Amino acid sequence: MSAERSTFRGNQKIQKMPSSIFDLEYFKKLYSKLVAISNDGARYENENYVLQPNQTEEEFQKMKGETFDLYKVTIIILGSKGERIVSHNENIFDVKNLPDEITQILFDNSLSYRNKVQQNPQNMFRIIYDFTKPSIFDFRTKPSVNINNSSIDISGQNETWVNGVYEQLISSIKERKTKRSWLYANYIYEILMLTLIIPLSILNLHMLSDLLAIPTLNLPSIIEVGLYIYMFILFLWIFRGIFNYSRWLFPYTELQYGIKKTVLAHRVFLFGLITSIIYSLIQAIIKIFINNI
């Protein structure tokens, strides 16, 4: 069979997903939609086939019928404890079948085809929903780097099919787009550092200078300078921790499944922490302003 099949690759669209929130019902509906899309891809592939000299009409029609079986949409679900579930049925998204914590959901219509024919189909897609969270205590990775792998990869011989699939997927994802994209924007960490954190750190050092100016302390100058440097670095590290904590609590791509009460408590805590910091800084600025009148 593989000798009569040929792979063409004329069009491709690859797109990183925007920051979004999904639920299990979305994936059930998506699977049904992808099955119909994949069948269209099989139909377009069949239209490119011609009867070969070494084929009978019966063999030719059989091959075309098998194309639809090969264009099977595969679902792969990964869990945080190493679970790996492979299915071709939307019932896999019933809660009883799922890991406690899902880290990735993948849809691919090329796996069955490739396993049987040892080549890719003419029209294929691979959609990855990455729900992994960045580590709070990862201080080595560049903070502005977004390591989330959620993406759409569509390629095919038929341009109409490729564009149609792309538009349908992007449209459904945009309906679930969040307002937290700014937290993962390029250079957002550096921008916050220059416009907010460093100025606030300097303000905190000014407040520290009032404490060190107490006569009873009578610290040597070198100790004071060392304390200023130490506190400045400490402020920057604290901000980096809060930044990582915020990304951990509000992941780039979120699945509304198995959200524990502890996560909600963490979000309330973060909101309270940021509010208290802002309040304290406003008080400090007002105090400095009044003292200098």
Would you kindly provide a written description of the structure presented here, covering whatever features stand out?
With 293 residues, this protein is of the alpha+beta class. Helices cover 50% and strands 15% of the residues. The strands form two sheets. The protein has a six-stranded antiparallel beta sheet, covered by helices on one side. A two-stranded parallel sheet has the order 2-8. Strand 3 and strand 4 (84-87) form a beta hairpin.
Supply the key terms.
293 residues, 6-stranded antiparallel β-sheet, elongated, 8 strands, alpha+beta, single chain, two-stranded parallel sheet
Distance between the amino and carboxyl termini: 88 Å
The portion of residues forming beta strands comes to 5-15%
The structural domain count equals: 2
The strand order across the widest sheet is 1-7-6-5-3-4
**SSE sequence, one letter per element:** EEHHEEEHEEHHHEH
Report the average pLDDT across residues: 88
Helix content: 40-55%
Helix/strand class: alpha+beta
Task: Please give the count of helices.
Answer: 7
Q: How does the overall form come out from the CA principal axes?
A: elongated
Overall strand count: 8
Taking pLDDT < 50 over at least 5 consecutive residues as the criterion, the unreliable ranges are: none
Radius of gyration: 28 Å
**Main beta sheet strand tally, sense and closure:** 6 strands, antiparallel
